[in-house]
Amino acid sequence: MSRIPLIAGNWKMYKTGPEAIETATQLVRLCTDVQDMDIMIAPTMLSLPLVAQSVQASNIKLGSQNLYFEKEGAFTGEVSAAMIKAAGAQYAIIGHSERRQFFGDTDALVNKKIRAALSCGLKPILCIGETEEQRDAGKTFLILDKQVSDGLKGVVLDELTDLVLAYEPVWAIGTGKTADTLQVDEVHQYLRSLLENLFSKTFADSVRILYGGSVKPANVADLMGIKDVDGALVGGASLDADTFFNIINYNS
Ligand code: PEP
Prior knowledge:
The chain is α/β, with parallel strands linked by helices. It has eleven helices and eight strands. The two termini are 23 Å apart.
């Protein structure tokens, strides 16, 4: 089954509104001729509507870095899935390890956020990954199994067509360490078979599984050459338009 690759940029808590507009505008120009690939950028919530204008009518899609699962209400400081969608986003990154580590996003909370995204027609990018300690203790598959099963608990197959999975080993995020191709290959194959066991083979074959963790122009081609890698979630290297474009354009 052919899966269109997705290269997604997570801008984290970087860039003011004008800075986000500038980078997005550069990216639109650089990516004009890119075909057969989905490109997404996730600026801060504050910049979403601004960047939506910059990427309008281009081949660059927009995503949020998080969302809150309630529809609306007295939840000071939070932003709902519907608000994100109305601001122009199509994707929502959910369960990023920085959310899990610094903001208490548990698998149960991640599950509520996934459901909220799906109910609004946002494509969720469910982030999963083990810490270095968990890998050293031989618990990688156990952890991934729980993050996927709990994150998707109670969600039925029909609702899941737009799911994207992002394998991001915590020890590789923002550290400059990249998982080697054998490690990535092993985990991505495992995740596809896990999705098959949880749902169906047809579904598992259709889901895009991204790799994330210190992806840069120098390593992207090797990572994208792995059979079950369908794209990348890029943090630091997505902040500069030229560098991010060199990742997107890895094949040329
Ligand atoms: C990320 O933020 O999802 C990420 C993978 O970051 P980096 O590319 O900087 O490791």
